[in-house]
Amino acid sequence: MTISSNQNQELLRQASTELEMLRLHGSIPCKNSNKDGIPFPNTCLHILRSIPGNSRCIDCGNCNPDWASVSYGILLCVRCSGRHRSYGVATSRVRSISMDNWSYSQVLSMLEGGNEQLHNFYSRHLMCDKISRVFDRRYQTKAAHFYRTNMVVHVANVGKFSQWKGREASRNKAVTYQCDKRKKSNNEHTKVVMIASAA
Ligand SMILES: [Zn+2]
Predict the structure, then answer these.
(1) Three-state DSSP class for residue 63
(2) β-bridge mates for residue 96, sequence order
(3) Which domains are assigned to the chain?
(4) Cβ contacts of residue 5 below 8 Å, gap of 6+?
(5) How far is the CA of 60 from the centre of ligand 1 (A)?
(6) What is the rounded distance in angstroms from the CA atom of residue 54 to the CA atom of residue 182?
């Protein structure tokens, strides 16, 4: 399932509204509020299913995976989700797309991740070949640790922006944000150097 450019903007707008409601839902103290979030929002789910690679389990290729590892923003079949649970939550945080409740940052992580994205990452680190010894423990490698740590940072940065406007917009903003941060830190560094040299 791919999203045509005609539908794209409307879907993104609806998904953005769902995310904003989810963000507020988590922050409004009320009697019926559920701290664990809400079922995966409909339009966000539509977008999630259209992300490249997400029609098949990332580990075994089974169709229509309905489980997720939030740590990587990937979709898994039920069998592989069991294996991911055995890794422990520090390595892979597993949730059901259809049965669990979801928080704002968890949904965002799924919309910013994707099976093809992680597959390409593993491919660059030569961890996609099933006959390689590394394949079965690829989620426990330093490379996987690097990937999930960066996912957390990326999702936190995207969450700082006003409203979610799609993966491409997030990436552009994240690059600008990192550049601004680097510029700011360089400026701070220059200030320190100037103060030090003036002393
Ligand atoms: Zn699988």
Answers:
(1) strand
(2) 67
(3) 5-198 (1.10.220.150)
(4) none
(5) 4
(6) 34
The token duo for 109 is 């992580």
> Could you give the C-alpha distances from 59 to 54, 56, 65, 91, 146, in angstroms and in order?
11, 9, 10, 15, 19
Q: Distance between CA atoms of 63 and 49, rounded to whole angstroms?
A: 11
Please determine, for residue 47, whether its predicted confidence score (pLDDT) is greater than 70.
yes
A 10 A CB-CB count for 149 gives: 11
What would the two tokens of residue 167 be? 């993966």
* pLDDT > 70? residue 27: no
Render pLDDT for 139-150 as a digit per residue (tens, 0 to 9): 999 999 999 999
Residue 126 region by backbone torsions, left for phi larger than 0, else alpha for psi between -120 and 50, else beta: left
Distance from residue 152's CA to the centre of ligand 1 (Å): 24
CA 165–ligand 1 middle distance (angstroms): 30
